[in-house]
Each structure stands twice: as C-alpha cells, then as structure tokens.
Amino acid sequence: MIRGKAPAISPLQTSVGNYIPLDLDVSPFDNSKTKKEGVSKTYKGCDGYAPMFGYLGTEGYLGTSTK
C-alpha cells in the first residue's frame, strides 16, 4: 500500500552520481506568554520549542519532528 501511494522522490543528478537532497532546519516557536507544558529556553532566548523541519528530494516534501 505504501509503495502504491508514496510520491516519487527525484534525485539531484551530478557528474559523480545521483543524490537525494535532504535539507534540515530548526525553527524556534515563541511560547513565552502561554501556559503550555514542555517548553524551555530556545537558542533565541525565549520560552518555547523548536521543531525540526526536513525537506526531502528536489520536490521539497516536508516532514517535521518536535523531539
């Protein structure tokens, strides 16, 4: 079922072979004025959390993680 529904991920073609790009980035969210559980100081100095975003392939499919 997954193979039938999963999108095709296009590689980046180079002179030494094909590579699938994976771009990872953290984006801090400011939760200073909330009573949300599980927040702590982010690298920008505010109370919040910093989910990690990942973009896969040349199409830029998005995935996220908070832990």
Question: What's the short version?
Answer:
With 67 residues, this protein is mainly beta. The protein contains 1 helix and 8 strands, in the order αββββββββ. The strands form 3 sheets. The protein has a 3-stranded antiparallel beta sheet with strand order 3-7-8, with no helix packed on it. A 3-stranded antiparallel beta sheet has the order 4-6-5, with no helix packed on it. A two-stranded antiparallel ribbon has the order 1-2.
Major β-sheet, in short? 3 strands, antiparallel
Rg is 17 Å
Helix-strand sequence: HEEEEEEEE
With strands numbered from the N-terminus, the spatial order across the biggest sheet is: 3-7-8
Strand segment count: 8
Which of globular, elongated, flat, extended, rod-shaped describes the shape? elongated
How would you state the average pLDDT, rounded? Answer: 78
- How large is the share of residues in beta strands? 35-45%
Number of helices: 1
The first-to-last residue Cα distance is: 28 Å
Helical content, roughly?
A: under 10%
The low-pLDDT segments are none
The computed structural class is mainly beta
What can you tell me about this protein's structure?
This protein has one helix and eight strands. By secondary structure, the chain is mostly beta strands. The protein is elongated. The model has no long low-confidence stretch (mean pLDDT 78).
